[in-house]
Amino acid sequence: MSFRLALQESPGNPWFSWQYVRDNSDTILAALREHATLTAEAMLIATVVAVPLAVVAYWYRPLTGPILALSGVLYTIPSLALLAFVAPYVGTTNPASVLIALVLYALLLIVRNSLAGLNQVPPEARDAAQGMGYGRWGRLFRIDLPLALPGIFTGLRLATVSTVALVTVGALIGYGGLGDLILTGFRNNFYKAEILTGAVLCVGLALVLDLLLATAGRLLTPWSRRGAR
Amino acid sequence: MRAENPFQQAVTWLNDPLNWTNPGGILDRLGEHLWISAAAVALGCMVAWPIGMWLGHSGRGGSAVVMISNLTLAIPTIALLTILPLTFLGFGKPPVVVALAVFAVPPLLANAYTGVRSIDPEARDAARGMGLSGWQVLGRVELPLAVPYLAAGFRTASVQVVATAALASFVNGGGLGQIISAGFGLGIAVGGGQILAGGILVAVLAILVEALLAVVERAVTPKPLRRARGRAARRAAAATGNA
């Protein structure tokens, strides 16, 4: 954990300080980059694992119950506890600890929403696909997944926003991205400008990513714009 | 990593009676954890239930409820936990309780709103026809009929708060998370077992609370409503799942 003691001497301790942002732009950008990288990696891995998992649960109905039940129980486990389970095995000075905990969390949200999306595919559409001679895989890629995209994107958006917030928990082992700023500011004599900069950037990053995903989802599913919601 | 694996270390740590009874030991931390969580959920209920039910009663504010939920999801717990002690709340338990209450509000609010909204309009009309005023309709008809939803929201919020309360350790706010933080402070060689033991304790507590409240939720939901209500309420709460 890095402490920047030189900053303690600042006379006032305002919440907003442009001076702070300018003087520490390197640190802030590094934290922002780490935060965004961790989020992106976690989301990428989680999506690659979760969507096929949802498809498996969709194809083999008996697996739906267990997969959802497991996701429910895992989601109950506090984020800090998840980090505590992973870190002793992976190493406490390893960003992979944070990454694994994040992936586990994101996984559950994406699986649940993707499955809900797949289950909402109208039976008529499925029958029509069958009648047109689509096989199982053809139907999956041409019919089921496109129609489930709104559900999948809901999951992705929820998972992204909560992942951005959860990255900060990694600050406990020094890989929390903007969370490191927040925590360092708190430990470093309650340096308000540093705390608030971290917090504001964190919320901002979440909102920007959410907006990007919402736009992407809308562009990919032009047919759902009227009707639903 | 040492020869002994972390899990064995954790079991050893949990088996030491002093780790339970010492000042700042497991029992102390458990007490703090439960106290903080209970206070936060109570505060959240006091704020969210009246507002949610009023919004549901008047039929306005649905989009506001969703917006509040989404916005809260984006705020990192640690940011609130570090910012609030620096305001007029001061240090100690109050800022932690307030921070956790903020995260309890969305599921409570969403379920109170949905609960009142989804009441059969005929029941409401009948109550009005009997000459009940707006407040009486709210108190005698809408409130009792919304209880299953309120219970579902209470369950979601409580589990979430118990899980999130572990993060209070970032600001020395107490609770079981403190055991994990202390373990990380010791480093992996010495604290590995303690980190894992703390994680197990927090996770077990969260799952116990979840199971206990599931039973309570079931008990307060009238039998014919159980399946449909549970699913609807969970959908209303799903938008705010976060720990």
TrEMBL record, chain A:
It comes from the Bacteria. One of its GO terms (cellular component) is plasma membrane. SUPFAM superfamilies: MetI-like. It is found in: Cell membrane; Membrane. The keyword Iron does not apply. Pfam families: BPD_transp_1. It is a multi-pass membrane protein. The chain crosses the membrane at residues 42-60, 67-90, 96-115, 147-175, 195-220. GO terms for biological process: glycine betaine transport; transmembrane transport. PROSITE patterns: ABC_TM1. InterPro entries: ABC_transp_perm/SBD, MetI-like, MetI-like_sf. Its main location: membrane. Residues 32-213 form the ABC transmembrane type-1 domain. Keywords: Membrane, Transmembrane, Transmembrane helix, Transport. Belongs to the binding-protein-dependent transport system permease family. This is ABC transmembrane type-1 domain-containing protein. It comes from Phytohabitans houttuyneae.
